[in-house]
Amino acid sequence: MKLNNLILIIFAIGIFSFSSCSKDDDGNLVFQKLTAKVSGQEWTASPVLLTAFKINDKYITIAGANAQKEAMNLNIQGTTEGTYKLNTLAGQTQQICSFKNAKGLYLCTVGEIVVSSIADKRIKGTFRFKAINTKNLKDTINIKDGIFDVNLLNEKTEEPSGN
């Protein structure tokens, strides 16, 4: 029984390891990344806990986490290269970003996501935003120098049939 569990764990690690990287034009391995400075401290998502989805050719979600149980999400209404403004204080909720750590969930208030490249099932760009703790509105964080370079999966969901 223990041997079966060990084999299963090794198999799972292998699958996640191969899905966390791709190859460039020269055949070199290129690992995914999602990094930023969170209130001045370097933050990096684990490559095996990082993903990006294009949903129904309307939205892109980039999500990553690390071993410290911190997580970051970038949600964009759009699937093209360009600059996506974040301003939930002005009622613009097309783009929503969040960061979660031991202190709570922080939602973005202002900032931007710049998608510089969407090609070969990969999305690349930069981001920055200010976020507020949903449990303590006086607790804010600044997220800057954000970089993402992630494999982009295409997720199609079924539209309701109306029957």
Please give a structural write-up.
By secondary structure, the chain is mainly β. The protein has one domain. It has 1 helix and 12 strands, in the order H-E-E-E-E-E-E-E-E-E-E-E-E. Strands 5-6-7-9-10-11-12 form a 7-stranded mixed beta barrel. Strands 1-2 form a two-stranded antiparallel sheet. A hairpin with a 3-residue loop joins strand 5 and strand 6. Residues 1-21 have low confidence and may be disordered.
Mean pLDDT, nearest integer? 81
- In helices, the fraction of residues equals 10-25%
Shape call:
globular
- Portion of residues in beta strands equals over 45%
Largest sheet: 7 strands, mixed, barrel
Give the strand tally. Answer: 12
How do the helices and strands line up, and which of them pair or pack?
Blueprint: H1 2-19, E1 21-23, E2 29-31, E3 33-38, E4 41-44, E5 50-55, E6 59-65, E7 71-77, E8 82-87, E9 96-101, E10 104-119, E11 122-133, E12 140-155
Parallel strand pairs: 5-12
Antiparallel strand pairs: 1-2, 3-4, 3-12, 5-6, 6-7, 7-9, 8-10, 9-10, 10-11, 11-12
